Amino acid sequence: MQIALFVAFVLSGESSATMLARLYFNKRGNSKWMATLVQTTGFPLMFPLILFYLPSKTPSTAQQEITRKPSWIILWMIYMFLGVFLAADCMLYTYGLNFLPVSTYSLICVSELVFNAFFSYFLNGQKFTPLIANSLVLLSFSSSLLVFQSDSEQTAKTSRSKYIIGFICTVGASAGHALILSTTQLAFEKILKSQSYKGVFDFIVYQNLIASAAIVVGLFASGEWMAISGEMETYESGKVSYIMTLVWTAISWQVFTIGCIGLIFDVSSLFSDVIGTLGIPITPVLAVVFFHEKMNGVKVIAMLLAI
Question: Fewest CB atoms less than 10 Å from the CB: which of 99, 215, 296, 299?
Answer without folding.
Answer: 296
